[in-house]
Amino acid sequence: MLDEARIVNALAARGIVPDANQRDAIAALVTLLATAGRRTKSGTLLAHQGVYCHGLPGRGKSMVVDTVFELANCRKRRLHFHEFLRDMNRRLVSEPRGDDRLGSVSRQWLDGVELLCFDEFHVHDIADAFLMGRFLDTAIGMGTRIVLTSNYAPDALLSDPEFHERFLPTIEQIKHCFTVIHFDGARDYRFGGEEALLPHFFTPLDTATNEALLEIFVRYEGSETLQPATVSAAGRPLATHAAGAALLWVDFENLCVASRSHLDYLDLAEHWHGLILDKVHTGWLSQSHTLQRLIWLVDIFYDRKHALFIASDQPIEAALSGLEGAHDLSRTLSRLAEMQSRGYRSTLDNTAGRTGTAETQTVAQP
Known about the structure:
This protein is an alpha/beta fold. It folds into 2 domains: 4-183, P-loop containing nucleotide triphosphate hydrolases (Rossmann fold, 3-Layer(aba) Sandwich); 201-364, no CATH class. Helices cover 43% and strands 17% of the residues. The protein contains 14 helices and 13 strands. It has a 5-stranded parallel β-sheet. The longest helix is centred in the middle third of the chain and has 17 residues, at 126-142. The chain is globular, with a radius of gyration of 21 Å. It starts with a helix and ends with a strand. 39% of the residues are buried.
């Protein structure tokens, strides 16, 4: 049986001593795994079927939840919210018409899942709100144990005043059925780490930067695939500088200024372990859609612990600081800090010396 001491020991092995908020979350998660899904004598489900951890980026929410998830001995599933939405929408397309298609798809999706963990839970538009409300209602009714991490308190979900009231029943359900824990520690664990041996962010956009990017690509892929290629991203062509087995080299204009979505980035992250994002002209970041695409891209590659190399005309973190017009920018800055630290162990490093093992989705060679 999983207990608090085992979780604390697992964190200690990573050099982490949990603070008060993290200990509260550990206790709530242990209680959840021990009791959630059980029924009272009257047959009703016990009150708390989930744990909702929220707070500023980098306060250890995912760190604690991931540790517990790894140790939990049950049928479990953990995924990023973008991936979940893509999967649900794909299923809905093929689901026969009926009175409750969303409920039916939710039950199919949840079948066999005893513990479900969503990382970076958020609701920004009414379509996702409707889907998520019905899904959570179904999951709670089935007795599924649910753990959510979020940068938003439950009351701050779907903050758009035009739609917020329509999501209030789901917010109240979360507050009633989940143990809600606020991570309000002063420390962002992603900042202050020792810098990685191999630089990840480069500026300005000059010959030296281009040579550094060339060296990175050859380091992981050799020179055999060092040529322009067009690859597929969610079924649409994407022109690149080079596409190796594990590392992709592409211009920012093609990937984030052009009309792309999180579905493109999910597809790329499933085929490549690292991305060189070249020629980032930071003036483009003042465009809200472009900025939001970069945030999606960072989220998706970070969630899979993939590598990200960025070449920009100005330091990327300084250019992002103070910008407005997109959701979750503070989380992006926190994640970028960790992604260039020595403590960030990317899946790309696991492929070093084994290039050619991944399937490259090249559809045409210029």
